[in-house]
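Changelog excerpt

This revision adds worked examples to the README so contributors can see how folded entries look when concatenated. The first example is reproduced verbatim below.
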Amino acid sequence: MVERVGDGTRLVIVDSPPSCAMPDVYAAADVFLFPTIYDPFANVTLEAMAAGLPVITTEANGGSQVLVHGNNGFVVSHNRCVKEMVELVSSLRDSSLRQSIGAAAKETAGSWSLERNVKATLALIQERGREISNFPA
């Protein structure tokens, strides 16, 4: 893929926790490419977005549901869509586009707080509890 993008583009693959803090890893990047085969909701999606990175991922990442293609990130249908990913990475060489997408990503990630997650989880538990208590024996 890197050969297809060309022009000095570097790809860094992080396949295990680095020895430095993840915010430092995200800060060193321009784009976060996550061509997953399957992830119910990869936390790295929101982490990269929170760091202000444009994210490119697949529909197989549940985290893609928080992305609006071309607004706060990009979603491709499958991890085999290499040509499309190359085109997206190439388009993000434009610093104003990269900054715009990254800013929108950061704003979106900010709305997905731990507090929101806990409230939604508790509401679901309460709702399901009412459903169970109304279930005929």
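The second example, added in the same revision:
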Amino acid sequence: MKKRLAVAFTGPSNSGKTTLILKVARKLIHEYSKKVAIIKHDPSDKARFDKAGKDSYKFSDTGAEVIVTSPTRTTYFSQRHNELDEMIRLFDKFDILLVEGLKNLPLPRISVFRDRLDVDYFSYMNALATDGSINLDDYDLPQNIDVIDLNNSDEIISWILNNAKEV
């Protein structure tokens, strides 16, 4: 079986995590010919995938596990929390898994920060992606944290390929 890699991204709201994941995913798919899977954590349970009154909403509203399939996509609605290994099995075929959030997962983690750094994230991060808006000399950054350029997708992808966890 081909090696599959996983890495996570964390950081405060509006730090640029989603924008970074989108840039990295597009580049991995289009320039590196990789199959990419993405998991996004929704800590406030705000994400909605269908409209009230539609059949798929009615099915999901029963509390059942529901898969909706069409000629162009398959959508999975689950009424329970899934562990990482369960979600990985759902994706099946991918080269690289990018996870947004879920800071307690045992995955190598890139933390995204602009303007100011939150030292509470130090214990979760393996790399710090920033754009130069933070004076890192103001912080006692742990030695084992790599600093990478938030605006350099190739540098971030190189870090991912060298540090991601095999899953």
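Reviewer comment on example two: The chain is about 25% helix and 25% strand. The mean pLDDT is 86.
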